[in-house]
Amino acid sequence: MKKKRLIEAIRSSRNILITAHINPDLDAICSQLALSEYLRQIGKRATLLNNDEVPERYSFIGGLARIKKSPARIRKAFDLVIVLDCGDLNRTGQVQNLISSKTQIVNIDHHVSNDGFGHINCVDTRSSSTGEVIYDLFSGKPFTLTRKIAIYLYVAIMTDTGSFRYSNTSAKTHRIVSELMRFDIPNDKLYEQIYESIPFEDFFQFAKIIGKLKQFYGGRVICFEFDKKLQERFSLDFDLRETTLNFLKQVKGVELIIIFSYMESQRTRVNFR
Description:
Layout: H1 2-11, E1 16-20, H2 26-41, E2 46-49, E3 67-68, E4 80-84, E5 104-109, E6 120-123, H3 130-138, H4 147-160, H5 171-180, H6 187-195, H7 200-209, E7 214-216, E8 221-226, H8 228-231, H9 240-248, E9 256-264, E10 267-272
Parallel strand pairs: 1-2, 1-4, 2-3, 4-5, 5-6, 8-9
Antiparallel strand pairs: 7-8, 9-10
Helix pairs in contact: 2-3, 2-4, 3-4
């Protein structure tokens, strides 16, 4: 029923906006791109817009130039906004300022923390990723899975499951990926570009700071503080937070990782894993 309502909402809309959360990850970005490709198949063109710019390190993914930033510059009125991978509307940042009382909101997500903010809520907490939800919603007529869409969805699912290592990876996840793999996806190349392309200077700097972590409760809790000066030592091609989180998750006995990152004056980002 939700799928039918969703397709009807898309067909009846003239100006569609597809957005995702602030500081978008590959699940959010690739879900945006996959969804826009599906909409093209039924003659719908959508504006892709996020609060923040897509990181340069993701440039190997085709189509990124279509995703705009700087919501304040947009003067277009949208009658349908599709929000991806967001637990609440505030996570879209300044993009929410483009939503009026007349705008219909579609909420597509997989997080258990989602508060059901949309007029149409397609939230499946059993799914591994928003990419998996997109696959479920748009598989079958009137849509066709293409190689381009398959690659977008594969990257979305692979990254949000930690390369199929996390507990959110289900038998269904593997069935979907097996369907995507029919399109001769270069999974080895994608993995290399995402996880094995750290510039040497960034690796050198990372090795110097990793020992400065703070341990609590016998090493079960680890904290890191990334001030502005420290972050400026790394290139834009290096995701300091994600690399640190992924590295420390490999340490035996660690149950909680907390990272405090400087964002701007009087504003700090806190990551929990």
